[in-house]
Q: What sequence folds into this?
């Protein structure tokens, strides 16, 4: 014997409505999982671009520090020093160069080489005895004239004022002796040039006969 069950239409409609809501919720969850990741923002892209110049800047700095150092220049514009082997020396009398107890002359250094050279400062000057050795006190430097760099092309000369005091001014303190000439040391050079010029000097180093100025020119 079968029992007949009757279902109310309102219950059937409620069941269908509940099933539809469940399916809709499941479908929405799947869509959220499949959504692609967002595109990088403009701010993160700009930050990456800004770091590139910083890297390039560091590279340029390293390159600059690794560059070889420029060699130190010579006395003027990289010209080599005017040393004794590139020069000739002479003494020239100057008109009206005499003074009470002393005389003024020009010491002339001429570039005899085939290239330009440069010099700066005071030459060294000493008397030479009859045997060719230095005698007496070397020249002191005169004050009042500023030294300048002088660049000499081949054949050009630099000139320094040379004051010679007469030995008689020192009396017995001088120990007067005949001299054969002068020994000239170009600035910053240990080699020398000899000038033949007979006269008299003092063997005592307490008698200061010579005074020299800085080289000037060119001429």
A:
């Amino acid at each position: 014997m079968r029992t007949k069950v009757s279902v109310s239409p309102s219950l059937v409609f409620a069941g269908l409505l509940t099933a539809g809501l469940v399916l809709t919720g499941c479908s929405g969850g799947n869509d959220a999982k499949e959504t692609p990741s967002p595109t990088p923002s403009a701010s993160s892209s700009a930050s990456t671009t800004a770091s590139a110049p910083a890297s390039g800047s560091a590279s340029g700095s390293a390159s600059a520090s690794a560059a070889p150092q420029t060699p130190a220049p010579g006395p003027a514009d990289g010209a080599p020093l005017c040393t004794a082997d590139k020069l000739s020396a002479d003494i020239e009398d100057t008109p009206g160069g005499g003074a009470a107890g002393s005389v003024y002359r020009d010491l002339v250094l001429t570039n005899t080489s085939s290239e330009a050279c440069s010099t700066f400062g005071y030459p060294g000057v000493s008397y030479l005895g009859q045997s060719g050795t230095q005698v007496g006190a070397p020249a002191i430097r005169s004050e009042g004239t500023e030294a300048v760099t002088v660049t000499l092309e081949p054949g050009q000369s630099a000139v320094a004022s040379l004051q010679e005091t007469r030995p008689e001014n020192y009396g017995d303190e001088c120990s007067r002796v005949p001299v054969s000439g002068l020994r000239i040391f170009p600035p910053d050079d240990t080699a020398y040039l000899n000038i033949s010029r007979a006269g008299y000097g003092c063997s005592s180093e307490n008698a200061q006969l010579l005074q020299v100025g800085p080289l000037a020119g060119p001429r």
Summary: The longest strand covers residues 87-99.
